[in-house]
Amino acid sequence: MKKQTIMTILLTMTLLAGCGKDPADSYDTKMSAVITEVSNTTAALDAIDPSAPDASDTVLAKLSELSASLHEAATLEMPSEYSDCEAPISNAATYMTKAYETYAQACSAEPFDAEAAGIAIGYYESSMESLARLGELLKSHETGN
């Protein structure tokens, strides 16, 4: 589901970025770049071999990258017609930061804290759900619905 969500958002933003009609173009272009970063990082996260010796460190690094990308998106100057997108992108950024922080706690515990890792996964999934909602809203802007 998360790959499909990211790809939907990426496609929507790519289409919007090509319109060239109004002041929202700058926002569309910047958001498209951020969504591309998120998509690439999510794909890299999905490709991590959990049995690799450095898997935890790699997951932590990718969660940090996702958090930074989403915070970048949340701080973009948003045209008023996109105000309904503010909460989903803000929530996605907040949840991803919580995922990163909670997974970092899991990794620093001796032994590895599987319960904290499970909570981190929940935050990650909540972030992806917020991104899915953002994708729906961006699609509605594209179609005018």
Report on the architecture of this protein:
The protein is mainly α. The protein has one domain (2-143): Four Helix Bundle (Hemerythrin (Met), subunit A) (Up-down Bundle), CATH 1.20.120. 77% of the residues lie in helices and 0% in strands. It has five helices and no strands. It has helices at 2-17, 24-46, 55-74, 86-108, 114-143. Helix 3 runs antiparallel to helix 4 (86-108). The radius of gyration is 16 Å and the shape is elongated. The model has no long low-confidence stretch (mean pLDDT 86).
* Beta-strand segment tally: 0
How many structural domains can be distinguished in the coordinates?
1
- Helical fraction equals over 70%
Main beta-sheet strand count, sense and barrel state:
none
What's the overall average pLDDT, rounded?
Answer: 86
Q: Give the CA-based shape.
A: elongated
User: What Rg, in angstroms, do the CA atoms define?
Assistant: 16 Å
CATH class: Mainly Alpha
Order of helices and strands: HHHHH
- The assigned structural class equals mainly alpha
CATH topology tier name = Four Helix Bundle (Hemerythrin (Met), subunit A)
Spans of at least 5 consecutive residues whose pLDDT stays below 50 are none
